[in-house]
Amino acid sequence: MIAIRSDAEIGQIRKAGQILSQTLKKLRSCTKEGVETRELDAIAREEILKRNAYPAFKGYRGYPGNICVSLNEAVVHGIPSDRKIRSGDVVSIDIGVKFRDYFADAAITIGVGSISDTAKRLIDTTEKSLYLGIENAVSGRHLSDISSSVQAFVESNGFNVVRALVGHGIGKELHEEPEIPNYGKPGSGPVLKTGMVLAIEPMVNTGSFDVEVLDDGWTIVTKDRRLSAHFEHTIVVHDKKAEILTR
Q: What is the distance in angstroms between the CA of the first residue and the CA of the last residue of the chain?
């Protein structure tokens, strides 16, 4: 069952999204060579708490961090640590925010210092694929129209979408129905309706789409240890154009 949110509920999610967006803007400016990933975690926590919200990932299913910071071959769920960011790193930052019992979720990937041409193309392709998916998140379209548009663009640029991980509905819970794969055929799955709130999140690899979990039980990496990137927005479906709640 995919929830249809009221205007009041969407307003609360929008506020959570604004807080999240402000936090990501701060983190983008702080993601530099020599910074430890746990420093970014502390900055994010401070930015969220001072806006009377809460880091949604902290303690979720036992997760130890406030945010996820995933470097290079790490796709998602990288735990903040004393690891220092270096020039050439591809850094994906994923944040969830809870505000007055409603959630928003978003992610960005940043190239630090001098990155390879392949890394630049990967980041650009992943971000553009997110916005293509969002363009298809309109009332009357099918859920798989989001998925297929992401896959087609990514693969046309020589990369692969991760298949073991998906986007999701969001609202009263961090993860709700439906699951939103980043691959599939158009014209299938649930019909989208105005008021559905979705977290669309392409995860894209330079190599194979296969992934595995490290011994820490959280960090998911590319099986071939090649680069990965991740972008995400929380959006609400409308008749003609989706609204991005985490812009």
A: 27
